[in-house]
Each structure stands twice: as structure tokens, then as C-alpha cells.
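Quick log. Single chain, no ligands specified.
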Amino acid sequence: MSIHAAGIVGLVVVFVVGTLRPINLGALALVMMFVHGTIFGQSVQDMYRGFPVDLFVLLAGVTYLFGIASNNGTLARIVDDMARLVGDRRALIPWSVFIVAALPTMAGALTATSVALLAPLSLRLARRYDIAPHMMGLMVAHGAMCGNYSPLNAVGAVVHQALASNGLQISSGALFLSNLAYNIGLGVIIYLVFGRVRFARREPGHRAPEVELDATVTRSPTSPPVAQVCTLLTIVGVAIAALAFELNMGFLAFGAAALLHLVFPASSGEAEKKIAWGVVLLVCGVVTYVGALQRYGTIDVVGQSIAGVNPPLVATLLICA
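-> predicted structure:
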């Protein structure tokens, strides 16, 4: 078997096994890269070359920062305040959740992180306001996806790095806005399909019940409002510094998280344990394996083979796959 065929087969095996069995794809990818590299005479130093240090710092730093925001109740308070702001206009609740879910990913958080942090709070709102839970779940998911191609987000960073390495450029604003418009459109469809009739049958005199969020998070004496205000200002400051001064987002997030943890140790808790290590392993492992395939020339070989397929729409579909 050629090195290119072995690389593609290994990638397929990683995804099939990782899908059918409860094991991290990144761990499988690292093991497969070692096996593949050993068979074809690659040194361990060569295998390390593809490890995305920049992505590791970005993913770990941002999830550390948002872990603190979750621990000290900042995210819960934002959802709580948003619910109180809309009052008894429960038709606005799904859109408020959509917006709140979009903000962390636009500021650099991973989609999975934003969904994991906000889904429990949003489903609690769904129960309190008698809103279809699957609708709220979809609004959280697509709201979070709005920030996928933000200049601060890891997904956008991966795309732009890949383009730059191939001598290509694309407007970061156009990419971000296109994805934003796409997910807002899906949000409108979800809202109309799952909520329009339900909200139209609003009971006379309906009043929104008190939203009971996790008292241990939002109203704990170890999580004073000043810690939540400082956390929110810190996240905004990190985003501004990264955009305006082109500073490294990952290191900024690590520094901000460490500072908050130092100043507010009680409310920060064990925030470092909320770093999304599973996501970090997944992304870094798969990117490292794909980096090996790039060094072998496998990606180029596959791309050239697909480019020769007619008609062009079929080639585009194959590239997407």
C-alpha cells in the first residue's frame, strides 16, 4: 500500500472507530499518526512538527477564561438579566438565548463550549416559559455557530491559516458575515417551525414566572457581582486587545483568566478543570495527523485527483466530503 493510500485509510479508520465507539478522535489520530509514521520511516521529531501549538494555546486559554465566567455566575447572570429584560414577552426568549449564545463564540469561545455552558440554563428557561425544549436547544446551537468564523474564533483561525499556507486570502469580514447570515436565517426557520403557533396562542394576562437559575452559581456569597462585572469587562477587553492590537488571543485569554483567578480565587473555583481538554485533544490530534498527510503530499494528491472530476459540481461535492 502506498503512503498516500495508507494515510487516507488511516483517516477513515480514525473517524469510523471514533464515531462508533466512545473514544476521542484526537487520541485515535495521534496513535494512527505514530503507527503510520513508524511504518514509513518518519522520526518522532517529524511527527511533532504538525502539532498546532497556536491552536492549543488558543483553545485552552479561551475555555479557561470562559470556565471562570461559568464558575462565578457571569454567564448565568447574563441569561437571567436577559430573561428579566424581555419580561412576559416570551416570544422574545428564544432570540435572547440565540444572542447570548452567539456572544461567547464571537469573543473566541468554541461552539461546543458555548453550547455546553448555556444549554442547561436555556432549557431551564424553556421549562419556566413553556417553550418547546428542542426549539431552545436549536436556537442555542445555531446562535453559538454565529461566531464560528469570527476573527477571534479558532475555526476562523484554522481556515485563514490553511488559506495563507496555500497562498490564498479571503476577507475575514465577508466570511464571518456570510456565516452569521446563514445561521440567523436558520434561526428564523426554527422559530417559525417550532414556535410561531405556540406563541400565537398566548394566554390572556400571561406573566413570565420568576426565572430560577442555579442559586449556587448566581447568588453564592463567593460570587459577588463585582467579580461578574470584572469578568465581563475582562472578556470584552481581551476581545478588543486581540482585534485592535493584533495580540495573540490565546495568551491574552490565559493572562486574563490567571488574573481573575488570582484576584477572585473563591468565585473562580477550580476553573482550570473546565478547560475543554476533550476538545483540545480532538482538534490538536486531528490537525497533527492531517499535518502529517500534508507533509507526505497526500492532501495534494487527493486534491488533484478530485479536481479532475467532471462535472465541476460533483468535484465540489467530493471536496466537501
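The chain has a mean pLDDT of 83.
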